[in-house]
Specification:
The protein has 306 residues and is an alpha+beta fold. It contains nine helices and twelve strands. The strands form two sheets. Strands 4-3-2-6-5-1-11-12 form an eight-stranded mixed β-sheet. A four-stranded antiparallel β-sheet has the order 7-8-9-10. The relative contact order is 0.18. The protein binds N-hydroxy-L-asparagine. Residues 143, 165-166, 184, 186-187, 196-198, 217-220 line the site of N-hydroxy-L-asparagine. It comes from Sphingobacterium deserti.
Length: 306
């Protein structure tokens, strides 16, 4: 049976990331390699203040990164609150491949990365430092959505740069195998030590090679509470389409916390074993990028509840 490879990822910055993943998929490479190569593009993009180097720091000025990766065999690796390393996704993959563990955090994750040849880097670039200095003037700690969200005033945002957050990527390769990756600098100006959904297997990312994969973006706390990506995959197992599964997962958030849900953004993205995909978000403004043999730069507007 011929499988048509496909890669999808969150937000329109997923287009460039998908194209890097496509280089791997198009040569019959592994989905695991594709998603790692793909999200590394977003991690390296300095104009993107929500992933990798150039990400906004926590409230104390430290850039701390969260990432995880999962393959078709259910192997997974994750790092949380990792500092000074520009490609947390590659450290997460190494945790998966070289250790008996799934997750390393903070100092231990940094030590592991340095011992394995990763270079120490300064992740706080001048534009992000400036945005942080601006934020310090008022120190308002509240989650800020993607820029299209109607519930906040974008003019007050430093650099007007909040229009993206986490990149989550799902790929199906020519061998019929699924893998996924998720990487972020987390919520801008978060508390020191705060970890979101993105490095939590089952919350920010989940893959089951029998069924499909899912990933999430937005306010991680609500995704962790509902074990969102695992839920989406389990719903697909029960026969839900990717879109219907994502819709049910965001509705679960609305049901649990109706007032909170109106004020925040969460988006889920899913891909099933047949290569069908779909998404659903709480608010408008969520987009995702799709890349297959036909078209490498498709951007789709996600459906939404509010
Ligand atoms: C997180 N889902 O850490 C990630 C990205 C984010 O607002 O900060 N969204 O919760």
């Amino acid at each position: 049976k011929v499988v048509k490879p496909i890669v999808i990822s969150t937000w329109d910055f997923g287009v460039a990331a998908n194209q890097a993943a496509w280089q791997v998929l198009n040569q019959k490479g592994k989905a695991l390699d594709a998603v790692e190569q793909g999200v590394k593009v977003a991690e390296a993009d300095l104009s993107n203040p929500t992933v990798g180097k150039g990400g906004y720091p926590d409230r104390d000025g430290h850039v701390t990164l969260d990432a995880c990766i999962m393959d078709e065999q259910g192997n997974c690796g994750s790092v949380a609150a990792l500092e000074h390393i520009a490609h947390p996704i590659s450290v997460a993959r190494l945790v998966m491949e070289k250790t008996p563990h799934v997750m390393l955090v903070g100092e231990g994750a940094l030590q592991f990365a340095l011992e394995n040849g990763f270079q120490r880097d300064n992740l706080l670039i001048p534009s992000s430092e400036k945005a942080w200095q601006e934020w310090l003037k008022e120190k308002q700690y509240k989650p800020i959505m993607n820029i299209e969200n109607k519930s906040f005033n974008t003019e007050r945002l430093p650099g007007n740069q909040y229009n993206h957050d986490t990149i989550g990527m799902l790929a199906l390769d020519a061998h019929g195998n699924l893998s996924g990756a998720c990487t972020t600098s987390g919520m801008a100006f978060k508390m020191r030590g705060r970890v979101g959904d993105s490095p939590i297997i089952g919350a920010g990312l989940y893959i089951d090679n029998e069924v499909g994969g899912a990933t999430s973006t937005g306010v991680g706390e609500e995704v962790i509470r509902t074990v969102g990506s695992f839920l989406v995959v389990e719903l697909m197992r029960q026969g839900y389409s990717p879109e219907a599964a994502c819709k049910e997962a965001v509705e679960r958030i609305v049901k649990k916390k109706p007032e909170t849900a109106k004020e925040i953004q969460v988006g889920f993205l899913a891909l099933n074993k047949k290569g069908e995909y779909g998404s659903y978000a709480l608010q408008s403004g969520f987009t995702y990028a799709v890349c297959d043999e036909q078209k490498q730069d498709l951007v789709i507007k996600g459906k939404h509840i509010f």
